[in-house]
Amino acid sequence: MLWVFFIDYEIEQGTHEGKIEVFLACSADGKNWQRLADTPLIPASPAGWDTDMITTANQPVYLKDRILLYYGGSNFSHGAGEKGKEYDEQSDRFAIGLATLRKDGFVYASSPRGQLTTAPLKSDKGIIKINADYMTGKVVIDVLPGAGSAKSYTMAGIDPLDYTLKTFLKGTLVLKVTIENAKLYSLDVL
Fold it and tell me: Deepest of 91, 103, 174, 189, by most Cβ within 10 A of its Cβ?
């Protein structure tokens, strides 16, 4: 979770004035980072106690069916308390909030009609766990085994966190996934 400080200006003999919001970033090597979206993961509210600065706890809390993101928010900007930008004890507030995401809900694949193909995956049990929202669409998974014929599975009309697809196909598999008006959060091949 990347805190981004939008600096409006520098306060003479002080700090900088501006807002802070939280974005989602990722890195494959811990050195080179990429912000995943131009919209904040936890945006500042248009009104209330968290309009100007959002800061997150060090680590999310992972539960079986959701992710909890504790965060601090304020209705005053970073420069509050500096010369010309006095802190108002009556109206300036800082509080703790809680944002929640569904399981694996940081990112998802979505499309009116799109496809993705996985690298070869090893399946010992012939099971695929799917976390997707296809209430108004569908997800089609074509399972391509290393040997034998492909099997196709269509899921539609539900919003499961852990849908269990028993393919009974074991060994090395490639999945060709078609997403139609749905959100695919994760696939777990067992």
Answer: 189
CB 175 within 8 A of CB 118: yes
Q: Assess whether pLDDT exceeds 90 at residue 13.
A: no
Determine the Cα–Cα distance for residues 8 and 115; give it in Å rounded to an integer.
Answer: 42
The Cα–Cα gap between 165 and 153 comes to 8
Backbone dihedral region of 51: left (phi > 0), alpha (psi from -120 to 50 degrees) or beta? alpha
Domain residue ranges in the chain: 2-102, 109-189
What percent of the chain clears pLDDT 70, i.e. is strictly above it?
Answer: 98
Triad 43, 30, 64: Cα angle to 5°: 60
Tokens standing for 46? Answer: 């248009």
- In whole angstroms, what is the distance from residue 56 CA to residue 72 CA? 6
Distance of CA 11 to the CA centre of its chain: 35
pLDDT band (50, 70, 90) for residue 51: very high
Query: Is the model's pLDDT at 87 over the cut of 90?
Result: no
For residue 30, give both structure tokens: 């811990």
Residue 92 structure tokens: 């300036």
> If you ran DSSP here, which 8-state letter would residue 87 be given?
-
What is the distance between the alpha carbons of residues 189 and 149, in angstroms, rounded to a whole number?
18
